[in-house]
Amino acid sequence: xxxxxxxxxxxxxxxxxxxxxxxxxxxxxxxxxxxxxxxxxxxxxxxxxxxxxxxxxxxxxxxxxxxxxxxxxxxxxxxxxxxxxxxxxxxxxxxxxxxxxxxxxxxxxxxxxxxxxxxxxxxxxxxxxxxxxxxxxxxxxxxxxxxxxxxxxxxxxxxxxxxxxxxxxxxxxxxxxxxxxxxxxxxxxxxxxxxxxxxxxxxxxxxxxxxxxxxxxxxxxxxxxxxxxxxxxxxxxxxxxxxxxxxxxxxxxxxxxxxxxxxxxxxxxxxxxxxxxxxxxxxxxxxxxxxxxxxxxxxxxxxxxxxxxxxxxxxxxxxxxxxxxxxxxxxxxxxxxxxxxxxxxxxxxxxxxxxxxxxxxxxxxxxxxxxxxxxxxxxxxxxxxxxxxxxxxxxxxxxxxxxxxxxxxxxxxxxxxxxxxxxxxxxxxxxxxxxxxxxxxxxxxxxxx
Length: 449
Prior knowledge:
The chain is of the alpha+beta class. The protein is built from 15 helices and 22 strands.
């Protein structure tokens, strides 16, 4: 690969550009009119404006992005996460335009992007899945019958869903019809696809995902787990590796299941298989993300493997340079997502100008961000502005370093969730590893309503 266009913005665009520079690969940044002063446009070798601030006219505009690649003679496109990263049509157009899409093949994205179809595939391959409907639900009558069979509570989920959208908990038959119609509408509005499916609601689970790498030569490895249970409205806030509930035996079982899942889908590139783990340590396939994850740095800190560089090497047709037995897991790593939002005002977004900025540093601390002093955060995009990642020889040290890092962080001019995150990592139950996906609602927001 000689030149990669990054079809994204913010910290992930900066992260990819840095990896490319270290690999001596030229880069092209694309940007909207709202991002003309963004850091990724300054760091890349070239930068092309692809449209107005509205993401539909810029970062989701396939035609403009492909044209930018052709004009700059970029031979590859890295989609990052979000936006078009899991859009099979985009991947297919790249393939047809003789531009290498740094990710899996379009048909694989298509297969795994439909949550009900991917669940059926995993069931056939013997990967544990959550009890639920066989594929998508055709009508309300079928929904009633499925719920009777598996029992309440259940989850209604958009088949093409992601990012926590198109999901509703239904606790009884009386709630089914209204929620069924709501989820159908949410799915139609968010994904232009109103297919939904039903699965048993696993109460108070842990959300544990397995990172995999798969090359085009049939080699697949897993890089351990990440615990993403600290989340609000299905949006992750803090991630860590290893998980406090995963021992070596369970890690091996989950890792083998993840590798089996990737092979079943003929997957290539970097990917993540997400599982729910119940109180008895039974785990169930939830979905597969066909892209780099926001939380990938904690896996890099613990394994020493650069996931973005591996993505690029795999896309270039290279074989993985390491086998499963050669991957070493060391220490503990935690990531906190810094968002421009006000937790005391129901997490209301807080765009605006950064007047003063101090980023934490020191041994065992990494900050992935695209903000700088004087930068104005636009109101058009996701509120995440930085990720603070800490590494320690054990979990206590990683937590201590995160406390220090959050104390050092100064972002003056806007509101952030820094103090909210600080309260979480000081919480006795978090420190003991005693939490699940309901932690924030139970521990942090119990008196806020």
